[in-house]
Amino acid sequence: MALVVIVDDQPTNRNIFARLAVSIDSDITVETFGAPLEALAWLHDHTPDLIVTDYKMPDLDGAQFIARLRQEPALADVPVVVITIFEDRSLRLRALSAGATDFLHSPVDHQEFVTRARNLLKLRRQQLQLADRAKVLKLRLEHSEQALRDSSERLGQVIDSVPSLIRATDLSGHLLFINSCQAGIIQADPATIAGVDAASVLGEDIGIRSNALDRRVIEHGRPIADVEEEFSDSTGAKRVFLTSKTPLRDATNTVIGVVTCGTDITERKLAEEHLYQLAHHDSLTDLPNRMLLRDRVRRAIVRARRGDSSFALHLIDLDGFKGVNDLLGHSAGDKFLKSVSQRLRAIVRERDVIARLGGDEFAILQTDVRAPEEAEMLAADVLRAISQPYMLQGERLTTSASIGITMHPNDGDDFEELLRKTDLAMYRAKGEGGDGYRFYATDMNTRARDSVTLDADLRAAIAKKQFLLMYQPQVDATTGAVIGAEALLRWRNGAGEIVAPGRFLPRAEENGLIVPINEWALWEACRNAKAWQELTDKPIRVGVNLSPVQFQRQDVPLLVAKVLAGTKLDPGLLDLELTENIVMQETHSVLVQLQQLQTLGVRISIDDFGTGYSSFSYIKRFPVNGLKIDQSFIRDITTDYNDGVIVKALINLGHSLNMQIVAEGVETAEQGEYLRQEGCDVLQGYYFGRPMPLAELHELIRQGTGLRRSA
Ligand code: C2E
Ligand code: MG
Ligand code: MG
Q: For a substitution probing ligand 1, which of 301, 458, 545, 635 has the most ligand atoms within 8 Å of its CB?
């Protein structure tokens, strides 16, 4: 159906054109007008598909007529043909600029009229179809935009109603989104958060850690789970969240950011702490129990291995406590024990540990003991405090104690042995009438004599070159490939026995012989490491243990530089193992030496991590590349929930400071698998290989894999 309008003041022309128009197609209607104004009035309410108009007319000429009709929005695109008898170009231009589409000459050739009109009608049809389609598209678009708005709004509401924190950051650490739980915790407005640097709103510590972990997620394209985040809420109370991080991907699967989700585990943590407290403390006095004491002594042993000064263990048994119970009853006995524990607490320093082992038996782990006299002083203080009178149920009571003392490492190198000997010493004190203390050794002169002999033996050992190095492989946790080995010192003494470092290093630290011994160890290890690079095309690094004493007595960076130059070992393959306590000394000189070592390009690892007093906020200020988690945490990792949690936290925190994490003391496949799953980078322990002679290590490097069970 097409509508053609014809405007001409000549009735003959109108009739001819109308006839021609109708002949174009069967469904064409024609409307004719003799005067342009009349036509305009009609066109106000109608939209034709083609207008044919004469140019020369009364009232309005063709150009004026077109200009007027083009003002009607509905007529803006309707094709208009102008019929003119003049060959005048200026007339045509006027008509064109007013909006004419085409021209026909009068007298009009019928064939030409029909052809042009048909073409213009076809054009018009296409024009209308296009407009229709655009309209439909626009409608659809509006509809889907609305749907999208609706669904993302709904999603937003769902996310906001989740009682967990959710936030998303982009590749450069700027926030994309936070839900209301997260917003509530950090007291931020979710509406204005987009584009803000995450670190600046999360708080410095959480921000830096979160950023580093985000970078790992982005780098590896893999999620990270179980990272604890601690926020202070608006009331200042601490809230702990167990968070996981997942890569955020766009439609093409490219990682464009990270989504962090966290569940509030504050209550659970409190419950755990409570359970830990119950399991590790004595319910009557609230003092650590035997289990916790054992743990603390073990850690002290690890620390003492390398120069952190030694410790003493005191076992305190009240004399005649049974009498109190018999005389005043058990509840009075309990009160009495509580008073004793309070007095003990008042004496010891914060670093020391007092434990109640049961009944009237207490123990003190006295740390940082440089000489037996210091242990004697503490024992005397204890005796004095305990012997002050007590008031119980209106009765004035007095008591005394017998104390046994052992000194590490002279009296033993493990908790059970030390406790047994302390017990013996205590019984001796008791046997001598009580109210006194006794050291384990027969007498202190032998002790002194022992040290003198050991000193002489060690000096001879250096001269006779009796030291040797064993190497323990370190393997990549995911591939199982050997990536390095730790050099561990041994002494083959005059009798041909192999002596472990725990037996002689503490003394060598004391008398300074550790300096030449370790100097030798460093040369030897680097020489060997240089040689084993020939065995494979993969770099295999060497770990060398350093002692705090070296940092006090020698220029460690100078020594390392000399050794590197002398052996031509790639500095990146030397991994210096330091204890937390070296770092904790915080003397300017230590910091400077560490920085110089870093400049040399060697790796620095913190050994036995977790047994010392350091904290992460402290460690992060030092140029450290790796953390070695101490074996005391690994031992029960698959069975002791607490150790599992600690290790997970150490791994994640370490990673958040961009450090490589090595687990020491891996003895079983289960431990290895657990650590691998938690994202630990490198594994070391008997399961992968005991400390072995160089030749055996060579064999292992040639095979390329450390994944084997050692004999
Ligand atoms: P470390 O540096 O922490 O070395 C790891 C110790 O754990 C080694 O004892 C190693 O034999 C032992 N170990 C490794 N895997 C396992 C395992 O799966 N289970 C168990 N139970 N133990 C495992 P080692 O060789 O007796 O060395 C003891 C410590 O002596 C070292 O602890 C280090 O502190 C010190 N040390 C060793 N060599 C040197 C040295 O050249 N210089 C200095 N300054 N200290 C050294
Ligand atoms: Mg080590
Ligand atoms: Mg270690």
A: 545
